């Protein structure tokens, strides 16, 4: 079993769409990521009637990683709804998630994001976010 299959299986365990209340819907988008140390963390999407309280599966997984280990660097990430990413933009993190990962660590520009599970096609966050506005702050910090 390769790392992508492990990530897929861990994320799939989280997939069980449910209405938490008349206002909150959860577990309909899932994510698994591999941290810099090789540990796997998962997350699921939580949506409410008030958009500012929504939390994507990718950010939930990243927060689980940080809360449970203090890590901020992600090596690989897979996210999906009812089936593995199949190309055509499926499985892509939203803009807020992309931004969060770059703000979490400069190294996350190198993280691989699954684009097509069957073909094992990936893209890096840096490819999705070229010329990121905050890169200069990391340069200034060094």
Descriptive tags:
142 residues, alpha+beta, 5 helices, globular
> Percentage of helical residues?
25-40%
How large is the share of residues in beta strands? 25-35%
Arithmetic mean pLDDT:
96
Characterize the biggest β-sheet: 6 strands, mixed
Total beta strand runs: 6
Instruction: Tell me the radius of gyration.
Output: 15 Å
* Category by helix and strand content: alpha+beta
Instruction: Determine the number of helices (DSSP H or I, runs of at least 4 residues).
Output: 5
GO molecular function: cytidine deaminase activity; zinc ion binding
GO cellular component, one term: cytosol
InterPro entries: CMP_dCMP_dom, Cyt/Deoxycyt_deaminase, Cytidine_deaminase-like
Family: Belongs to the cytidine and deoxycytidylate deaminase family.
């Amino acid at each position: 079993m390769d790392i992508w299959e492990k990530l897929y299986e861990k994320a799939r365990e989280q997939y069980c769409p449910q209405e938490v209340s008349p206002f909150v819907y959860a577990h309909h988008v899932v994510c698994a990521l591999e941290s810099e140390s090789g540990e796997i963390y998962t997350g699921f999407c939580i949506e409410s009637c008030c958009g500012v309280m929504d939390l994507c599966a990718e950010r939930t997984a990243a927060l689980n990683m940080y809360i449970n280990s203090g890590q901020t660097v992600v090596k690989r990430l897979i996210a999906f709804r009812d089936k593995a990413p199949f190309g055509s933009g499926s499985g892509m993190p939203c803009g807020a998630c992309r931004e969060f990962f770059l703000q979490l660590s400069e190294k996350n520009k190198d993280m691989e994001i699954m684009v097509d599970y069957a073909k094992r096609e990936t893209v890096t966050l840096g490819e999705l976010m070229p010329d990121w506005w905050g890169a200069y702050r990391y340069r200034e910090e060094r």
